[in-house]
Write a structure and sequence with these properties.
2 strands, 6 helices, two-stranded antiparallel ribbon, mainly alpha, about 110 residues, about 45% helix
């Protein structure tokens, strides 16, 4: 699958759920390329903004869309890596702010 195909597939699935791609398409395509690289490397699409371990069970919380996406978008309007955002975030109706890492410290380091 190439990056444009992944873009269209995810957009079709996620927008009806209220999760939109960041309007910065260049950033989105770079992040999607990272997902594809992680899929090729590890066999799963680990978040491109986090270090995957290569152990799917250990990383199940960061398989995109990660378990942190919904609470991040609900609280900040954006997920950690800004791949998924709310429509309000994209339209500039809410302030863009830093999204803190929610992943527990023991998951960050093997």
């Amino acid at each position: 699958m190439n990056v444009e195909q992944l873009y269209e597939q995810l957009k079709k699935v996620q927008e009806p759920r209220g999760f939109f791609f960041n309007k910065d398409k260049k950033l989105v395509l770079e992040l999607l390329e990272g997902l594809i690289a992680n899929k090729d490397r590890y066999g799963y699409m680990g978040c491109p903004c986090r270090l995957a371990s290569g152990d799917r069970d250990h990383d199940k919380d960061i398989v995109c869309p990660c378990v942190y996406r919904a609470p991040d978008v609900a609280e900040f309007g954006s997920c950690y890596c800004s791949l998924y955002v709310s429509s309000e975030w994209n339209e500039g109706e809410i302030e863009k702010q830093y999204v803190p890492e929610r992943r527990s410290p023991e998951k960050l380091f093997l």
